[in-house]
Design a protein that fits this description.
The chain is α/β, with parallel strands linked by helices and 284 residues long. The protein contains 10 helices and 9 strands.
Length: 284
C-alpha cells in the first residue's frame, strides 16, 4: 500500500541501508531505491545534482572526516562516497544514507543529499575504479579528496571546474591565497577557497539571472540542467520545471547563442561549471 505524500513542511528522517559482503551494483541499486522511496513519500523531494565527491580515508579517521564534511553546509556534495580503508579488511561492506537538505517552502523543490560509506581493504585497491564508478552520478563533476596534502586539494579543484581554463586559474588562485606560507592545503583551505570563489562570482551570476527575468523559459532550462538528474527533454524534467519540449528547445538554442550552454552527447550542458554549481545550490 502506498503512503500518502507528506506535506512539504514535514521533516523526514534519514533513509538508511547497510549490508555486509556486498557489491558495487547492489550498493547502487539500494541507493537508487532509497531516493525513490523518499520521492514517493514526498513528491517535492528530489536528489541534488551538482557535484560528486569521493574521499579515501583510513578507517580510523572515517568518522572524523565524515563529521567535518557534514559540517560544510551548502557546500556539501550532492553525492558523497567515502572509501574507508583498513588494509586487513577482506569483504566489501557499505552503508548508504539519504537525507533532506531542509524543509522546502511553497512551490519549492527539496533537495536530497546522498552519502555512501564503503569499507574496503588492501585486496580492493586494484579495483577502486570498478567499485566507485557505479556509485557516482553520471555527467556530474567528481571531486577526489585524500586528506594528506596540497596535490589532492588541487586535483579536487581541477575536477570541480571540469577543465574550464579560466575557472581553473580562478580556483587555483584562491586556493593559493587561502594556503598559509609553508603550509599544505587541506579541507579547511578548500572550504575557504570555495567561499571566496562564491563571493567573487556571485554578483555576476545574479546579474545574469536578473538579465533573464523576462525570459522565464531560459531560467527554467538553466535550473533544470543544474538540478535535474534526468535529461532536459525527459518528461519528468519538463513537468517539474513547467516546460514543453518546444519551448525548452527554443530556450536552449537561445542560451547556446548567449554562450551559456553547449550541446553534448547527452543533450545540453552548462558551459561554466561554477554557474552550474551556483544554480544548483542557491540560484533562483
Amino acid at each position: 500500500m502506498s503512503s500518502s505524500p507528506l506535506p512539504p513542511s514535514t521533516p523526514l528522517p534519514d533513509a538508511v541501508w547497510s549490508a555486509q559482503r556486498t557489491t558495487p551494483d547492489a550498493i547502487e541499486a539500494a541507493l537508487r531505491e532509497l531516493v525513490n522511496q523518499r520521492h514517493s513519500e514526498n513528491g517535492v523531494l528530489v536528489p541534488a545534482r551538482a557535484l560528486n565527491m569521493v574521499t579515501f580515508v583510513e578507517s580510523s579517521y572515517s568518522g572524523e572526516i565524515a563529521n567535518r564534511l557534514a559540517a560544510v553546509g551548502r557546500y556539501h556534495a550532492s553525492r558523497l562516497v567515502v572509501l574507508s580503508y583498513d588494509p586487513h579488511r577482506t569483504t566489501l561492506n557499505a552503508r548508504a544514507v539519504v537525507s533532506s537538505e531542509g524543509e522546502p517552502g511553497n512551490d519549492e523543490l527539496g533537495l536530497l543529499r546522498e552519502t555512501v560509506t564503503v569499507e574496503i581493504g588492501e585486496r580492493h585497491l586494484d579495483d577502486l575504479v570498478t567499485i566507485v564508478d557505479p556509485l557516482v552520478v553520471t555527467d556530474l563533476t567528481t571531486l577526489l579528496w585524500s586528506p594528506h596534502g596540497h596535490p589532492e586539494a588541487v586535483d579536487a579543484l581541477l575536477e570541480l571546474v571540469c577543465g574550464h581554463p579560466q575557472r581553473a586559474m580562478l580556483c587555483a588562485h584562491h586556493l593559493f591565497e587561502q594556503t598559509p606560507r609553508g603550509a599544505t592545503a587541506d579541507l579547511d583551505t578548500f572550504e575557504r577557497a570555495l567561499a571566496a570563489i562564491d563571493r567573487e562570482t556571485g554578483e555576476a551570476f545574479e546579474k545574469l539571472w536578473d538579465d533573464l527575468v523576462a525570459k522565464p523559459n531560459q531560467r527554467k532550462v538553466l535550473m533544470a540542467l543544474a538540478r535535474s538528474s534526468e535529461t532536459l527533454y525527459n518528461r519528468r524534467t519538463l513537468d517539474a520545471y513547467g516546460l514543453k519540449k518546444g519551448s525548452a528547445e527554443a530556450a536552449a538554442r537561445a542560451l547556446i547563442g548567449r554562450g551559456e550552454l553547449q550541446r553534448t552527447a547527452a543533450g545540453f550542458a552548462i558551459v561554466d561549471p561554477l554557474l552550474e554549481r551556483w544554480l544548483a545550490q542557491a540560484g533562483g
